[in-house]
Amino acid sequence: MYTPDLYKNENPEEIRTFLKENSFGILINQTNGKLCATHIPIELEVNQDGKEILQGHISKLNPQAEGFRENDQVLAVFTGPHSYISSSWYDHENVPTWNYIAVHVYGRIKIVDYETSVEQLKKLVDKYEANSENPVRVEDLSAKTMREARGIFGFEIEIEEIQATKKLSQNRDDYNYKNIISELEKTENPQAIAVAKEMSKCRK
Asked: What InterPro entries does this protein's entry cite (predicted)?
């Protein structure tokens, strides 16, 4: 991912938090000579060796999985808030741009066994059911329903490299920076407001 030095995020804790809060990602690999991508939850976890990994699952009917054995190299892409930035918000002439936060994780994927896949599902469901009025638990599902879990491949990705971009108008002076935040907040667009919030964290 092309990232000028000014916009690189090299704070491990920030990246870790971002991945946990924006875990619906895009898994990309090459299968039969073609690039394939699937939109799925991909969770940051710690394995038995205390090493951070990514884990998730895809359908066995998804042809993308055919490529995992041929070439285990994959890319997982995660995106956060983003917004158009109008140059009319500056006190000088310039070009419009786009502010955004994104993380690319490069690694090697392996398919895990059925029991491990079910444990992954339990963690995933528990995470997203935490605030539910009537939370669903995998442990409470019938044997008939759980047979559907036979239709997925659980996987783990050994992380080899992380590239993180936080492009939030860091190249602007304080006056223009604060004005961008103000204009974003006026849009009433949730994405724009989220960008404004992130910008406010970066420069008080």
From this structure: Split_barrel_FMN-bd, TR_PAI2-type
